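Exercise (ungraded).
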Amino acid sequence: MKIGFLGLGQMGAGMAANLLKAGHEVTVYNRSLAKTEPLAQQGAKVAGTVADACTGAAVYSMVADDKALEAMAFGADGILASLPKNAIHISASTISVALSEKLTQAHAKAGQRFVAAPVFGRPEAAAAAKLFVVAAGAPAALAECAPLFEAIGQRSFIFSETPSVANIVKLSGNFLIGSVIEALGEAFALTGKAGVDAHAYLDLLTSTLFNAPVYKTYGGLIAGGVFEPAGFAAPLGQKDIRLTLAAAEALNVPMPIASLLRDRFLTLIAQGGETLDWSAIGKLAAKDSGQ
Amino acid sequence: MKIGFLGLGQMGAGMAANLLKAGHEVTVYNRSLAKTEPLAQQGAKVAGTVADACTGAAVYSMVADDKALEAMAFGADGILASLPKNAIHISASTISVALSEKLTQAHAKAGQRFVAAPVFGRPEAAAAAKLFVVAAGAPAALAECAPLFEAIGQRSFIFSETPSVANIVKLSGNFLIGSVIEALGEAFALTGKAGVDAHAYLDLLTSTLFNAPVYKTYGGLIAGGVFEPAGFAAPLGQKDIRLTLAAAEALNVPMPIASLLRDRFLTLIAQGGETLDWSAIGKLAAKDSGQ
Amino acid sequence: MKIGFLGLGQMGAGMAANLLKAGHEVTVYNRSLAKTEPLAQQGAKVAGTVADACTGAAVYSMVADDKALEAMAFGADGILASLPKNAIHISASTISVALSEKLTQAHAKAGQRFVAAPVFGRPEAAAAAKLFVVAAGAPAALAECAPLFEAIGQRSFIFSETPSVANIVKLSGNFLIGSVIEALGEAFALTGKAGVDAHAYLDLLTSTLFNAPVYKTYGGLIAGGVFEPAGFAAPLGQKDIRLTLAAAEALNVPMPIASLLRDRFLTLIAQGGETLDWSAIGKLAAKDSGQ
Amino acid sequence: MKIGFLGLGQMGAGMAANLLKAGHEVTVYNRSLAKTEPLAQQGAKVAGTVADACTGAAVYSMVADDKALEAMAFGADGILASLPKNAIHISASTISVALSEKLTQAHAKAGQRFVAAPVFGRPEAAAAAKLFVVAAGAPAALAECAPLFEAIGQRSFIFSETPSVANIVKLSGNFLIGSVIEALGEAFALTGKAGVDAHAYLDLLTSTLFNAPVYKTYGGLIAGGVFEPAGFAAPLGQKDIRLTLAAAEALNVPMPIASLLRDRFLTLIAQGGETLDWSAIGKLAAKDSGQ
C-alpha cells in the first residue's frame, strides 16, 4: 500500500519503520528533517512538505496535540488540500473529540475519508510493533486500513463508525491510568505514614490483586520518587485529563475522579513540576499529609 | 500445632479445613453450631464456647467485623480471659486499626501475644489454600505462625512489628479495589454515553494495560450490571472505606478518593442498594449522567 | 457624553435607560429591533447596525456570552472596525478572561481603548441604577467612564489596569454564589432527612450568621423547590463555572469546590434540568440521599 | 427558677451571668474552681461537685465536647445519678448526635427530661445575652426552659420534639461556616494570583452580595493571614466537621463539601496548623497554587 506518514517523534518513528518492514511504500514527513534520515535508510521516501506525503491511498498522522495536527491538516498546503479523493487520513494522535469531529466533517466535505486510530503503548512497544490499536470509522475504510494496523500493533480493537469514539476510548484509558496513579499515591501516603516500606508494599500489591503493568510501572515510579527524566511529562497528562473532561462535558457526564486529577495537575505544575513525569501527582497526597 | 479457630463463615471454613489438612490439631468454634459439622468430619474438635477453643498454643479468629471480634475477645468467657500465657491470638479479620491496637495492648497485659494477619482473597481462594497473608507482630510470634500461614495461603507478606500495620495494609488494599470500581464506573459512563459497548470496552482494557484480576472481576460486574447476589455486599465495602478513613484520620492523611468512595456508598445505600454487591457504586456515574 | 449601547436584554435595557436619564446621548443597538422601541421613547437614537452605534466617545456592550460579543466585536461591520481612534469599548458582559485579553490587544492595535466593567446585580437592580460596577483598565479611560458607571450603579470598584482582572473578579463572585447554593443544598439535605422544616431552617440561618441577600434568595428557592421560570438558567451558571475554571487553569489555581460545581451542573443538565434556575443544583444532595 | 450550671468556659461564664441577672437562682460548677469566683460575686452559689449543682428544677451544661459531657453526665456522681425526677438537663454544648440520643434515652430511663439547646454566637454574644438558641425536646420541657433561653439569647428557634435534631441543626451551621471559609479561600487564591488586593476584594464582596457577618469575620482573617491566637482552633473546627459527617452518615446523606473540609483539616493539621484558627484552611487553596 502506498501511504504517507506525518510525524516522526518517538512513537511515529517506530510505527513508520514497522510499516516499511511490512512492505508498504511509505513517504515520511517531519517538521525537522533530521528525523527522516533513519527512515530513509530503511527505505522510506522523504517528503519536504506535508502535501508531498499526501499522494497515496492513505496518510497516517502521529503528532503531539491538537495544535500540531491542525497545523498539518488545514491551510493551503495541508492534508485536506492535498489528499486525493477517497484517500484515507488515519489519525493516530491523542487528540480532542472536537478536532476529531471537525476532521471527520472536513474530510467528508473534501471527498476524502477519516479514520481515528489512536494507540496504547509506549515508544518501545511502537518500535516492537506491539501497540494496541483502537480504531473507529466507516467499515470499508477500516477494512482497507487493517493491514496497516497489523503492521504496527499486536491487536486492533474496532469500536464504532464514528471516528471520534476511538478518541474517547483512548482518552478514557489515559484517565484510568491517571486514576491508578492518584489511588496509589493515596495508598502510599497512608501506609507510608504508618511506617510501611514503599517497595515492600508495592511488591505485595503487584504480586496479588494488582498484577498489571500499569501498577508495576507507576507504582515503581511513585515508590522510587524519581520523576525525571519524564517518560510522559506532567503537561501531557494534564492535557489528556483536560480532553477527557471536555469530551465528558460535551456528553454531560460528571467524572469526579477526573476533576480531582485536574486539580492535582494544577497543583503539581503550580509548584514547579512542569518537567516531571505525570506520575509525580502520586506524591501530592503524601505531601499534603506532611511527609 | 494445637490451635483453636473461631469463626466458620465462607472464609473461615476454608481456612480451618486447610489447617487440618496440613496436620494441625484444630478445635473449631462458631456461634451457630451447624457450621462446625463439616469441619468435625474432617477431623476438627468442636468447642461449645470460645473459651473451649482457647486452650492451645494459638487461636485464629476470622469474623465479620469489629463488633463480632470484640464480642469474642472480651468478657468473662472471651479469648483474653481464656488463652494460656504466651499463647498467640492471630486475627485474620478485616478490623479497625483502633481495635487492633486495643487487642495488642490487652493481650500484652494478659501475658499473651497478638498477631494481625488479615488475608487477601475470596472464599474460593480460602478453600484452595491460595490466600495472600499480610502479617505483622513480634518476629518470634510471626515465626511460630509461619506454618499456619503456609497452610492457608500461597504467600505471606510480613510488614512490621506493630500488628495494626497489617490492618492498615489490608484496608489500603480494599481502598485500592474501591478506587478501581469508581474509576471504571466513570470510564464506562463516558464511553457508554458515546455509544461504546461495555463488554467490548472491558475486553480492550483487560487485554492491554489493565490485565489484572481486579479489573476483570469488577469490570465484568459493572459491564453486566447484575449486582445480586452480592459477592461482597455494599455495607461491607462501606465499612472498609470507613475504617480506611478512620486509620487515615488518626495519621492525618487526607485521601480524597476515599472521601469520594464514602459519599458513593452513602448514595448507593440511601437509594436502596443495601443488598447489592459493592461494585454497584460503579453505576452511579452513569446514573448521574442520565443513563 | 455621546455613547453607543449594544445589547438590550433584561440587564442592558435598564442600564441604557439610566444612561439616558443621566443626560447622556445614547445610540442603542439590538439584534432584534423590537427591544429598541422603549428606549427610543426615552430619547435614545436607534442604530440599525453595530457600526452605527460606534460613532461616539464610547460604546457599552452588554450581551449574553463570548460568542455574542465576538460576533459584535469582530468582522467588517464590528466594534473594532467602526469605533473612532481613542474611543472606549466598555464591556459589561460576563465573558471569559481569554476574550477580555483578546479584546484588550485588538483595541490597542486599532488605536482604541478597552475597559472591562462587568456588574453585580439582577435586572431589578439594573432598572433601579443600583448595580455594583467592577471595573479594570487604563486609569485615564476609567476616569472618563466614571460618570457612566455612576449613572447605572450605586458603587464602582476599580481593581487593576489590566481589564481582564475585572472579569476574574466577576467570575469569582458567581463562583461564590454557586458555592453558597451547593453548601445550602447539602445542609438542607442533612437537616431535611432529620425532619427539619426547610423554611424554618432557612429562617434560622438568615436571621443569624447568614443574614445576606444571597442566602435569602437562593435559600428560598431551594427550600421552595420551584426552579421555573429560571431567574438565571442552569446553562448560564454552568457557563460561569466553566469560565471560572478556565481562568483558574490559566493561572494554575486548583479550586475543588468549583470542580464540584462543574460536576453538579453536568448532572443537573444530564437529568433534564436545562430550563431550571441554576439553584436547582441545590437539590442534588437531597436527591442523592434518597429524598 | 432554681437551676444548676455546669461549665464556666468563655461561653458558659457569660451565659451563667445572664441567668443570674434575669433573677434565676443559679448554682455553678466548674472543674477548676477559680472560674467560679466571678460568678459567686454576682450572686451564684458554688457547687463543689457536679451532683451539688443538680438539685434544682433544671441543670444547664456547656462544655467543650462529647468527652467532657460524658464525664459529667455518667458515673456515680454524675448528672443522671443526681438530678431529681422530672428535672430537666439542658445541653448547650456542640456534641454529637449519638451522644444526644444516648442522653435522651438515659434521662428518660431515669425519670428525668433532656433538652438539647446549642447556641450560635461567640463569647462576646454570650456575655451580651445576644446568643441565638436552637432548641429541641418535649414541648412541655421547652416551655419551662423558655425563660432561661430568653435570659441568655436574643432569639430562640424551636425545631423538633427530638432533642438530637437541635444538635444536627447546630452542626449544619458550623458546616456552612466551614464552607464559606473554603469557598473564600478558593476565591482569594484565584483573584490573588491575578494580582487583586485581598482587602479590596473582600470590601467588594461584603459591600454587595455577601454582606453578612460570616463573610466579614472569616474573610478578614483569611485576607489578613493572621491565624493566631485562634478564636476557634482548627481541631475544634475539625471536630465539628467530623460530627457533621457522622450525623450525615447515620442518615445516609452524602455531603461532598463536608468531605472536602475534612480533607482540608487533615492537611492543615498534618502540616503543623494545630494551634491556628480554623479559618487557616482558607489558605490551602492559595498554597496549592504556589502562592
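Further reading is listed at the end of the chapter. For now, observe: Chain B is about 50% helix and 15% strand. The longest helix of chain B spans residues 163-193.
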